[in-house]
C-alpha cells in the first residue's frame, strides 16, 4: 500500500512538473509587453483562489468536498486537521525559504530595469513602500490592465519558492493521498481529483504567465510539497487511522 501511495503521488508530481518542463524545453520567458486576454483575466481569478484571504475559502471548500466520503464524521474532522497541518507546514517552510534565498520576482526585475534602480533597493523597502513604489510606476504603464497592476502591488514578496504552487500542489496531493488512503474508487472521487488537478496545473501556469515566478520556482515548490506529503501519508498509513473508514462511496 505504501508503494501504491508513492506511485500515485509521484504520478501527479510529474504531471505538475510538466508546466516548468515545457517552459524550459521551449525556452519560454515572461514578457512584460504581452497583451492580456479574457483567458488571462479568468486566470487571475483562479490565481487569487490561492491568495490570502481567498485561499482560506478555497481550503474550506476543498475540505468540505471530503465530508460525504466519511462514514464517521469525527474522522472527517481529523482529516481536516491533517489538511490544515499540511497547509500551515508547507506555507511556513515557504516563508522561511523566501527569506533565505531572497530572489526577486520576474516583474520586479522588469520594474527595476525600467526605473534604472536595483531589485535590492526595491526589497529594502517595507511591503507598504514597495506597493506605493509600484503604484507610481504603473501609472505610466497603460498597457497593463488594472487587475494585474493590483495583483503586482499586492504580491511584493520574493520569488523563490512559489507559495501559490506549494498551496495548489499541496491540495492536489491531499486529495490524491486521501482518496488512496480511503480506497475511494467512486465517480465523485475521480471528478474531485480531475477538477483539483486542472485547477493546480492552471495555478502553476498563471504564476509564469503573470511574471510572478520562474520555472525553477515552480519545479522546486512541487518537489518540496511532494516530499512533505509523502511523509504525511506514510505516517497516516502506519497509524491506520483512516484505513477502510469511508462510506459506501468507496467503491
From TrEMBL:
It comes from the Bacteria. Its EC number is 3.6.1.27. The keyword RNA-binding does not apply. The keyword Transmembrane helix applies. It catalyses: di-trans,octa-cis-undecaprenyl diphosphate + H2O = di-trans,octa-cis-undecaprenyl phosphate + phosphate + H(+). GO terms for molecular function: undecaprenyl-diphosphatase activity. Keywords: Hydrolase, Membrane, Transmembrane, Transmembrane helix. Residues 78-233 form the Phosphatidic acid phosphatase type 2/haloperoxidase domain. Pfam families: PAP2. The chain crosses the membrane at residues 12-31, 51-70, 75-93, 166-184, 191-210, 216-236. One of its GO terms (cellular component) is plasma membrane. It is an enzyme of class 3 (hydrolase). This is undecaprenyl-diphosphate phosphatase. It comes from Pasteurella dagmatis ATCC 43325.
